[in-house]
Amino acid sequence: MEEILKYLKECGTFYLATMDGDQPRVRPFAAVCAFEGKLYIITNNKKPVFQQMLKNPKIEISGMSKGTFIRLECEVVPDDRREARVAMMEEYPGSLSKMYSVDDNKMEVLYLKNAKASINTLTGESKVIEF
């Protein structure tokens, strides 16, 4: 898990895909943190992406760093605990505080479960990590 966290942070921006009915939707994300041994992402509960993840929790994440790319398939689980939101805010105090506060009733954090990641080179080498 730590290797995946480090990789996603190195990407800066990574891309998250959901399903909207029969239409895939992809959008940029940039915040990820570890809390209680799990990887977390953040979104706004007013955005369609949050509703899509509630309806179908299977997502994929992709990003590139240093000539390699990651594909991460997993399920997301909402965590409504204040402590989880605080952990995310502490990881990104400057950028997230411009959009959210811990108790604003729009900030949602979700952890990844049943995750399988592959980090690949453009020449075909692959490393698989499950967590």
Q: In terms of topology, how is this protein built?
A:
Layout: H1 2-11, E1 14-20, E2 23-29, E3 32-35, E4 38-44, H2 48-55, E5 58-65, E6 68-79, H3 82-91, H4 93-97, E7 107-121, E8 126-130
Antiparallel strand pairs: 1-2, 1-5, 3-4, 4-7, 5-6, 6-7, 7-8
Describe this structure in words.
There is one protein chain. This protein has 131 residues and is of the alpha+beta class. The chain is 25% helix and 50% strand. It contains four helices and eight strands; from the N terminus they run αββββαββααββ. Strands 1, 2, 3, 4, 5, 6, 7 and 8 form an eight-stranded antiparallel β-sheet that branches. Strand 3 and strand 4 form a beta hairpin. The longest helix is centred in the N-terminal third of the chain and has 10 residues, at 2-11. The chain is globular, with a radius of gyration of 14 Å.
